[in-house]
Amino acid sequence: MARLFDIQQFKLINKYALRDFSRSYKKLWVVTSTLFVSLLLLSLTFSIKEALNSEIENNSKELLGGDIQVDSDIDPLPDAVIEQFNELGRVSATIEFATMLSKEGESPVFTELRAVDNNYPLYGEIETTTQGASKKIFSSTKNPAVLINESIQKLLKVNAGDDIIIMGQKFEVAGLVSSVPDLAESAVFGEFAIISMDSYKKFGLSSGGSFLDHKYRIKFNNLNDIQEQENTIKTIVAYDDRIQTRLPGQSGRSLSRVIDNFSNFLNLVSVSAMVIAGIGISNTLLSFINQNNTSIAVKKSIGFPSSFIQTMYFYEIMLILIMTSVIAYLIGVFSPLLANEFLPEALGIDLQPSFSVLGYLNIFFIGLLVVLIFSIPSLYSISEIKAASLFRNTFNPVSLNFSLKNILLLTILVLVLTTYFVSQTNQKLYTVFYFVSFFGTMLIFYGVSRLLIALIKRIYKFSNNSYRIAYRNIVAKKSLAPIMTISLGIGLTLLLTLSFVANNLKKEISDSIPSLAPDLFFVSIDRDVKGDLESYIKEVDPSAEIEFSPMASASFISLNGTPIEEIVSNNNRSAWVVRGDRRISWSEKPKPDNPIVEGQWWEPGIEDELFISMDSRAAYDLGMKINDKIVLNILGRDVTGTIKNFREVDYRDISINFAIIINKAFANKLPYEYVGTLKSGLPSSEILAMVVEKFPNVSAIKIDRILKQVSEVLNKVFIAVTAISLIVIIVGLIVIVSAVLVQTTFRRYNNLIYKILGVDFPTILKAMTMEFAVIYGTLIFFALSVATISSYLVVENALQLTWYFDFGLALWILVSTAAVSFLLIMLANRSIFSPKVYPLIRNE
């Protein structure tokens, strides 16, 4: 090995390796196929992620709709501020709010409505299915025009030219909008419509309440000094802490976060597949060495050292790695073109292939680490083959070499692989946890196989011939038990775990939540309308259950004098509670379904002090304690409040819940609105239509519609994770088949002896079935146990849902996996069922 870089020796290695590879490449098909599948999955993930991030970065201004965006939320900016913006560039103002769109005879649709001015959009364009439809909303006609998306068209059953009602006013449908700037983070999967700012003002659509969202986008006149102009904008709006600015680089942040999280999951699954493939590499390479022991002994007899032969075989593996990685990467490079077919058109994203040398080297390096980890124990077994074996005409099969030196080297390589992967993800802790769990699970399944062999050796020895053959196969040195339990066990555990989690989510959405959730959720109800609305609903349905809660807007400023943004990281699961504007409420006493878990409720009647009740989980995540001081900005004024108690809040039933509740005596002097829920015996569509007709300015969300959308998304996620998990199982099955083929010579010899002794085919078949049943049965027990515990922890602790065990789902997965595995094993063993006797007599 020391002279590896000698050019003459390298030429010699290359010559012998290519010659040997040309003769025996068919024997290495397992290495080729498993490496290719796992590298392809890794390449697809990296390529699509890179294409998405590149598209977001290159079109960041189009996604934002300007060089900078200013959000003032409920209140519009003063004219003086907008004039200062105009001095820097072109300004486009938009107002977004939720309202109802309706058509006679159809159920009203809760919609995100955007009012835009004549300058909109500053970057990009409003894309419609009919050319020129976007101009109609700005033209002066008898009836104003509205652009709707395809979802609204299907729900209201309208076409271009039809009329719909928005807050009591008639609008003509100008056409269908497919994409607009900044849609990526708002209404891609929901209902979305656009009207002109003139229509918004002319028809009095200004009662959107506290759910109004004013946004101003600026396109700078001078593009040479963007940074200075951004700072100028921030200085102009610094007078109000509630006003936020967004830059083009932040326009696709939420989308990028989703992409990173999902790609990280796919990467981990890919590495899992590669590690399982590594088991096949190790097993196939060891078999390859044993099959070539005569050739190796001959090479040693003429002076070739073990290091030369090891390098030669490693060179052949490297050839396979280079070929498979190149093909996998090239397929991955063009995968963004296919991904475009599955992305929502509303995102306005067009992925393009991009070739990167670093991208290829990234995939190659990961493949190289896996190949090194699993080939070293096999390659070092070559030193056990001696040239003297040629004189004895006997060769004992070699085993994996796990010397102290090799164990140390393998440990270093595993740490390098883990560290390399962890360095490429934002979810470092979860990635480390996954690797520890994965390798820990591998050790568990290996221990299970050894335990099975030990137990079988100690149990009662039956006289049945099928049992004796199965017993011999299981306890043999080349038993299928270790490879089968590890390869199939990990894939099956992953599939069961993900299926259990996804199934529990689907069950919660389709069964548990609908039984508890209200039919309608009313949004932003004016307090002058609340009484009339409640009375009208009682007239329509006296048995209806109605609940209203007051609501105002507030934003977090600091906790115990420290700015909240310095305390809470973006990865904090409760960061949503303190980011941006938050709706707060108040009550005389805590609700029965919001029990106090720490602290005490406040005394009534104290008007001059602000007392705060926090969601206990959010408080724990944010590091809050009883009597901590919180500064809230309420209606532009900073108010310091004291945390008095923590409540256990269950958001699952979609009833009215608030993370933050304040004392009623202090809140009485605040302007406020109401939110409410309704559970009725009447069909939700029917009662919603009557309410919207009577109260045009009232907006309500149909809960069953939301649950249906979520369920559809979960179904797609379930299909995706199942397909991904199946890839791991497929790789595991290939490894098992390779292990079966490795034992072909050994089992053919045994079956030949059995045939001479009078054992018939049915007996051998029963023995193989019994062997598979024992190994798979043991594997099922541990795989099901690990999957059950893992899914329970995820569902109960991470998702805080009720965990259910679905026996039917588990049975379907286990039986189908068993059937496919057993069929493949039978096919791989078909050549040994009827061996010929004469080769044994001739000692062939």
Blueprint of the fold:
Blueprint: H1 7-24, H2 29-58, H3 60-64, E1 68-73, H4 79-88, E2 89-102, E3 109-116, E4 127-128, E5 145-148, H5 150-156, E6 163-166, E7 169-179, E8 192-196, H6 197-202, E9 213-220, H7 226-236, E10 244-246, H8 253-291, H9 293-301, H10 306-333, H11 335-339, H12 357-379, H13 389-392, H14 404-423, H15 428-458, H16 465-475, H17 481-516, E11 520-525, H18 527-540, E12 545-559, E13 562-563, H19 564-567, E14 581-587, E15 596-599, E16 610-615, H20 616-621, E17 629-634, E18 637-647, E19 660-663, H21 664-667, E20 673-679, H22 684-694, E21 699-702, H23 703-742, H24 744-756, H25 761-798, H26 807-828, H27 838-841
Parallel strand pairs: 3-8, 5-7, 14-19, 16-18
Antiparallel strand pairs: 1-9, 1-10, 2-3, 2-6, 2-9, 4-7, 5-8, 6-7, 11-20, 11-21, 12-13, 12-14, 12-17, 12-20, 15-18, 16-19, 17-18
In short, what is this structure?
This protein is of the alpha+beta class and 844 residues long. A hairpin with a 2-residue loop joins β17 (629-634) and β18 (637-647).
Walk me through what this model shows.
The protein is of the alpha+beta class and about 850 residues long. About 55% of the residues lie in helices and about 15% in strands. The chain contains 27 helices and 21 strands. The strands form two sheets. It has a six-stranded mixed barrel with strand order 2-3-8-5-7-6. Strands 12-14-19-16-18-17 form a six-stranded mixed β-barrel. α14 (about 405-425) runs antiparallel to α15 (about 430-460) and α17 packs antiparallel against α23 (about 705-740). The two termini are about 35 Å apart. About 40% of the residues are buried. The mean pLDDT is about 80.
